[in-house]
Amino acid sequence: MNMKNYFKHVNGKNSGNIVLYAISTCLWCKKSKRLLNDLGIEYYYVDVDLISESLKQEIREEVIRWKGKAAYPCIVIKNKIWIVAYDEDRIRKELGV
Predict the structure, then answer these.
(1) How many domains does the chain have?
(2) For residue 93, is it left (φ>0), alpha (ψ between -120 and 50) or beta?
(3) Using 50, 70 and 90 to split pLDDT, how confident is the model at 4?
(4) Least buried of 16, 72, 78, 95, by fewest C-beta within 10 Å?
(5) Tens digit of pLDDT for each residue in 9-67?
(6) How far apart are CA 96 and CA 46, in angstroms?
(7) Which pTM value belongs to this model?
(8) Is residue 83 within 8 Å of 91, Cβ to Cβ?
(9) 25 found inside a domain
């Protein structure tokens, strides 16, 4: 799935490829962004509610394929660790901070 044009980039310390799927109005998604920002981690994110319906469906299917449900926030770390919902302790642990 090529979504590069839809992702926003946040500069910071490179901790591997970090991707956040979020909803722009979601409190937990905002907390996830704030945590990554506070940790100074480089990441890419997309606010799923602000993109086209077809791409939204592709993202939903991708998240369901990995986790069995579509829920946000969804953080993907190094293309292999998926964290669905806000879990600060696990995010910190997986990022090694």
Answers:
(1) 1
(2) alpha
(3) low
(4) 78
(5) 999 999 989 999 999 999 999 999 999 999 999 999 999 999 989 888 888 888 888 77
(6) 23
(7) 0.89
(8) yes
(9) yes
